[in-house]
Design goal:
The protein has 382 residues and is mainly α. The chain has a domain of 102 residues. 71% of the residues lie in helices and 1% in strands. Strands 1-2 form a two-stranded antiparallel ribbon. Helix 6 runs antiparallel to helix 7, helix 14 runs antiparallel to helix 15 and helix 16 packs antiparallel against helix 17. The longest helix has 44 residues. The termini are far apart. 32% of the residues are buried. This is Lipopolysaccharide assembly protein B. Keywords: Cell inner membrane, Cell membrane, Iron, Membrane, Metal-binding, Repeat, TPR repeat, Transmembrane, Transmembrane helix. Belongs to the LapB family. It comes from Malikia spinosa. One of its GO terms (molecular function) is iron ion binding.
């Protein structure tokens, strides 16, 4: 049977017309989607700038649904979820990005970094640690190591914290010598609580040789020696602290005075404190320690007068008044109680980074977690 070529004459034009119509339809649909997607995106951006995060999230979800392959919208949506505190949805968004096979290496690393931030904000430190370790050979390596260091400090994993600090020094992030000294002091304190005082003592003695500018190392060594009955060794450690980091002497002035009274070192300590007072700004702790070494109350009160001559101080005035008697006993008691109450806030220490105040001195601020952010002087002396 012969083939009828007339069908080709009719079929080809019809197929061409149908193809052209289909392409026009697809083109109009693509244009409509492209127009709809930017509208949702810009609406979400406007709502975000207006601090309407819930409505902005809805707009970005609409934009993602219209164009599920757009990675930037996914990143924006995941970050919004995190800022809003919806960490579970943020994790799902970023895990979806990591599972996509069309993303380049740069976007995959960016998604991994965002996922680690989700876990950190959610307080899932073990999952955050695992996510951060995958960024060690990426452009986010420095940020990842710093975040890992924070995790190890929060979990009190001092050994891993020390290793991470060494790696940060290696890649040129500055010196972590004093922070590593804190880690060793924490480890020594743990050994001491466990009864391993010999190991703790050896660790601290090695530490002061390696990091002589660590005030905490000298103080920890002095406390441990004193607890073992080695008062002479404890005083030697505090004298070394005065030579290496004299600005921290006020922190141990009271201990110096008390321990010196147990042996023949009283005169040496008093001379050390007087020399320090001549070379530095007035310190209430140093003045109080010197007063403790005086043989009678009159000489002690004279030291507070000398302090007041150099610098007005309500606390020093209260210490001086504590040894004086005036008026009726009941009136005197009320006046001294009022002064003591007014002086309490002035005796605190204040973090230079966040302003957190505390009665005791902290090597790491409980508020902002900064190390060595507390000046070794009282609030009144700032």
């Amino acid at each position: 049977m012969a083939f009828d070529f007339s069908w080709l004459l009719w079929g080809l034009p019809i197929a061409f017309v149908l193809g052209w119509l289909a392409s026009r339809y697809d083109l109009r649909q693509w244009r409509a989607e492209r127009q709809q997607n930017p509208k949702a995106y810009f609406r979400g951006l406007d709502l975000l700038l207006s601090e309407q995060q819930d409505q902005a999230i809805d707009a970005f979800i609409e934009a993602v649904q219209n164009d599920p392959e757009t990675s930037e919208l996914h990143f924006a949506l995941g970050n919004l979820f995190r800022r809003r505190g919806d960490y579970e949805r943020a994790v799902r968004v970023h895990e979806h990005l990591l599972q996509r096979g069309d993303l380049g290496q740069k976007d995959l690393q960016r998604a991994q970094h965002a996922l680690a931030q989700d876990f950190l904000k959610a307080g899932l430190l073990d999952r955050a640690e695992a996510a951060l370790r995958k960024l060690e050979d990426s452009p986010y390596a420095t940020e990842a190591l710093l975040a890992l260091l924070s995790i190890y400090e929060r979990s009190r994993d001092w050994e891993h914290a020390a290793e991470t600090a060494v790696r940060l020094e290696t890649i040129g992030c500055g010196s972590f010598e004093l922070r590593q000294a804190h880690y060793r002091c924490e480890q020594a304190d743990l050994l001491r609580k466990q009864g391993s005082t010999v190991e703790a003592l050896a660790m601290l003695e090695a530490l002061v040789q390696r990091s002589p500018k660590s005030a905490r190392a000298w103080i920890s060594l002095a406390d441990l020696r004193q607890s073992l009955g080695d008062t002479q060794g404890a005083l030697q450690a505090l004298h070394q602290l005065a030579a290496q980091v004299p600005q921290h002497l006020p922190l141990v002035a009271h201990s110096l005075a008390q321990w010196s009274k147990l042996g023949p070192q009283g005169q040496d300590t008093e001379q050390l404190l007087r020399d320090w007072r001549e070379q530095h700004s007035p310190s209430l702790d140093v003045t109080q320690a010197l007063a403790l070494l005086q043989p009678d109350g009159a000489q002690a009160r004279a030291l507070y007068i000398e302090h007041l001559q150099r610098e007005p101080s309500l606390v020093a005035a209260a210490f001086w008044l504590a040894g004086e008697h005036f008026g009726q006993p009941e009136e005197e008691k009320r006046v001294k109680q009022a002064l003591e109450r007014a002086c309490e806030p002035l005796k605190r220490y204040r973090c230079a980074a966040c302003g957190f105040e505390a009665r005791q001195y902290f090597w790491q601020c409980p508020g902002c977690q900064s190390w060595d952010s507390y000046p070794p002087i009282r609030v009144e002396e700032l």
